[in-house]
Design goal:
Strand order of the largest sheet: 1-2
Number of helices: 2
Strand content: 15-25%
Structural class: alpha+beta
Radius of gyration: 14 Å
CATH topology of one domain: Alpha-Beta Plaits
Number of strands: 2
Oligomer: single chain
């Protein structure tokens, strides 16, 4: 997790980044969850073009990466 600290600081300061997190899973040791929320496709593309992610030595057992396009948001308690 520590290897993502510097990148997390940079991405959160990047224009258009609404949220970014890399977290250890509470139930599965070795599982990492990545969450990104962007203001626009353009801002995400600009970030990806220069992101320079850290090199991680740990082997990846598997991945399940999905992208979700959200049409709207609202208060979850309404």
């Amino acid at each position: 997790m520590a290897s993502f600290e510097e990148m997390t600081t940079r991405v959160r300061a990047f224009e258009g980044c609404l949220d970014f997190a890399v977290t250890a899973d509470a139930l599965e040791p070795g599982r990492v969850n990545v969450y990104e929320r962007w203001a626009s496709e353009d801002r995400l593309a600009r970030w990806r073009a220069q992101a320079d992610p850290p090199r991680v030595e740990a082997p990846m057992r598997s991945d399940h990466v999905r992208r979700f396009d959200v049409a709207a948001e609202r208060d979850p308690f309404d």
